Amino acid sequence: MKTETILITGANGQIGTVLGQALRERFGTANVLSTDIREPAAYDFPFETLDVLDRNAMFELVGSRGVTQIYHLAAILSAKGELNPQWAWEVNMSGLFNVLEAAKKFGCKVFNPSSIAVYGGETPKIDTPQHAVLQPQTVYGISKVAGEHWSNYFYQKFGVDVRSVRYPGIVGYQSMPGGGTTDYAVDIFHHAVRGERYTCFLADHARLPMMYMDDAVRATIEIMDAPAEQIKIRTSYNISGMNFTPAEITAAIQAEVPGFEVAYEPDFRQKIAESWPENIDDAEARADWGWKPAYNLPDMTRDMLANLREMAS
Ligand code: NAD
To answer: Does residue 293 line the site of ligand 1, with CB under 6 A?
Structure first.
């Protein structure tokens, strides 16, 4: 396989921690440069501090290292973004511009994740189609819609090979989430394994699209691997994994952890959840580049609990 030189922004976050490891296994540790504004607690792989708002520093790294692919994960997520909208807009938009400009100048392929947060308002909530109306209710969602269109623009206008999926809420044991509306679905497992009661910030019936981390990482690698002519959508692809409510994930955990208790105290994040779809139609991703999720709720629950228990022992 052709050797790539990879740069990951926001690599110390929930997805970057796991995607970084997968990319190192695939392309070799020396060929994957992880960057973030926060240094990992401990690491044995190439890492540099990089603020995505620092265009000169980004150009310098991409140029001097001969980077061929950028995985742009640095972002301010939905819940955190609502607490400081202008900052979220600045990081999400200027960060993306710097990545797209670097890719244009140095000829890199780009992965720019979007989110189910692009949906809202009049979007159909059931089997949300690829080309549904986009009326996001959060600054995060607005930045993701704009980012999807800028990615498409750089592809159409300058031929930058940008690829994207709209991740649902991601659940994994390897890392902690960074301030999204679906973070509860990770926290709940940590409480269950510690034998603690969990207080959920969403209502028991808040159904949202979700995906196990293994599937999210595989989707990312598969879309980046696909031949360019198979990538027909250059804004972002819907991808689906599973969907569940807090009550359903609680029941799935209780099947493995009898006596586990959950209380519900919905906060401002419930309103965000209510603006998002319940499940996603990903027919285009399946047809164009062969997307197929592997994990359902019971599989994910067993794998999460087994791994968290092992990490705790
Ligand atoms: P995260 O919040 O866990 O990680 C983001 C990382 O970006 C953090 O490590 C943070 O330190 C870093 N960062 C913030 N500002 C920065 C800056 N100015 N310069 C450099 N780094 C900076 O997020 P994540 O969950 O890993 O998400 C990665 C991508 O996937 C984001 O684009 C996010 O919008 C998208 N996404 C995630 C989910 C999910 O459920 N985790 C769902 C949909 C989309």
So the answer is: no
- ipTM, 2 dp: 0.99
C-alpha–C-alpha distance, residues 114 and 11, integer Å: 16
Instruction: Give the residue among 71, 74, 311 at the shortest CA–CA distance from 175.
Output: 311
C-beta 169 within 6 A of ligand 1:
yes
Is 178 a pocket residue for ligand 1 (Cβ < 6 Å)?
A: yes
Determine the atom of ligand 1 nearest the C-alpha atom of 171: 40
CA of 13 to the centre of ligand 1 (A): 6
Task: Report the predicted TM-score, pTM, of the whole model to 2 decimal places.
Answer: 0.98
Amino acid letter, 179: G
Q: What is the pLDDT of residues 252-296, one digit of tens each?
A: 999 999 999 999 999 999 999 999 999 999 999 999 999 999 999
pLDDT in tens, 178-234: 999 999 999 999 999 999 999 999 999 999 999 999 999 999 999 999 999 999 999
Which atom of ligand 1 is nearest to 17's Cα? 26
**Ligand 1 centroid, distance to 10 Cα (angstroms):** 6
Tell the residue number behind the tokens 């607005």, with chain if given: 142
What is the Å distance from ligand 1's center to 177 Cα? 9
Which secondary structure element, helix H or strand E, spans residue 192, and what is its range? helix 184-194
- If you count them, how many residues does the chain have? 313
Give the pLDDT score at 1. Answer: 53
Q: Indicate whether residue 180 lines ligand 1 (CB < 6 A).
A: yes
Burial 109-122 (b: 16+ CB within 10 A, else e): bbbbbbbbbbbbee
Cβ contacts of 151-154, under 8 Å, gap ≥ 24:
151/96, 151/100, 151/110, 151/112, 151/234, 151/235, 151/236, 152/234, 152/235, 154/100, 154/103, 154/104
